[in-house]
Amino acid sequence: MVKLNNDWDAILAGEFEKDYYLQLREFLKNEYKSATIYPSMFDIFNALKFTAYEDVKVVIVGQDPYINPGEAHGLSFSVLPGAKTPPSLQNIFKELATDIGCEIPNNGHLSHWANQGVLLLNNVLTVRARSSRSHANRGWENFTATVLEKLNQREKPVVAMLWGNDAKTKGQIINNPHHLVLQAAHPSPLAGGKFFGCKHFSKANKFLSEHSINEIDWQIPNI
Predict the structure, then answer these.
(1) DSSP state of 120
(2) What is the Cα–Cα distance from 218 to 207, expressed in whole angstroms?
(3) Do you find a cis peptide bond into 69, omega within 30 degrees of 0?
(4) Is the entire prediction scored with pTM above 0.85?
(5) Half-sphere exposure (CA, 13 Å, Cβ side) for 142?
(6) H or E element: which one contains 163?
(7) 131 has which bridge partners?
(8) For 80-94, how does the pLDDT look when each residue is reduced to its tens digit (9 = 90+)?
């Protein structure tokens, strides 16, 4: 039984009983027994545990967890304290610096965002070590689509940041005119720097302010 210990429990209660999720659960049981899987099974749902449904101001959709040891912990783009900041996150920090003047932090742990209402949600919540997309098309996409559908139904405005093609596939789900959808290239260096200049962070705060919602403090504290 999955326990998120906030309002997501009631909102997603029926989802964990659906056939696709029960099949996904059996797949994951075997995977965690037979291979190295990220994140830890205790961290899979951290995005939802850190950021309650009613608290969500911004949702940033990632692809799947980082594939190297000591990095993934259930928040998209975030790494555990002590881990080297991955290239995609380095580019996010560069965009933050040019967009709103944030200093580049000495770590990539994004819980500071999650605690303020930034839902850091990967499209797929688990992955085999050193094998990107290895858990794609196993059911996670259905689950995360439901999460976004539930947010779309909310009256309280949400900003959705969709970076890269995987995230953009979720764009059609968030069609409620109360919300703001921002799309850009993925921050990975493989995108050739097309992410730079999107100004999503200043646009998000402007939207939140216009709707009398507290802005996000995007500056990640040094450790």
Answers:
(1) E
(2) 15
(3) no
(4) yes
(5) 12
(6) strand 159-163
(7) 128
(8) 999 999 999 999 999
Rounded Cα gap, residues 91 and 60, in angstroms: 15
Residue 192 has pLDDT above 90, yes or no: no
Q: Give 46: exposed, middle or buried? Use CB within 10 Å, 0-12, 13-18, 19+.
A: buried
d(CA 200, CA 194) in angstroms, rounded, equals 13
Cα torsion at 28, 62, 72, 64 (round to 10°)? 30
The reply to whether 64 belongs to the active site is yes
Q: Are 67 and 132 in contact (CB under 8 A)?
A: yes
Find out whether the peptide bond into 39 is cis, omega within 30 degrees of 0. Answer: yes
- Collapsing DSSP to helix, strand or coil, 58 comes out as strand
Tokens describing residue 100: 């709103």
Distance CA 104, CA 132 (A): 27
One-letter identity of residue 112: H
Tell how far CA 51 is from the center of its chain: 11
- What are the φ and ψ backbone dihedral angles of 38, each rounded to 5 degrees? -115, 145
Q: Answer whether 120's CB lies under 8 Å from 49's CB.
A: no
Q: Where do runs of H (alpha helix) occur along 12-86? A: 19-34, 46-50
Residue pLDDT, tens place only, 157-190: 999 999 999 899 888 999 999 999 999 999 999 9
**pLDDT tens digit sequence for 105-124:** 999 999 999 999 999 999 99
Which two tokens mark 86? 């991955």
Q: Which of 7, 9, 55, 64 is catalytic?
A: 64
Tokens of 179: 């919300």
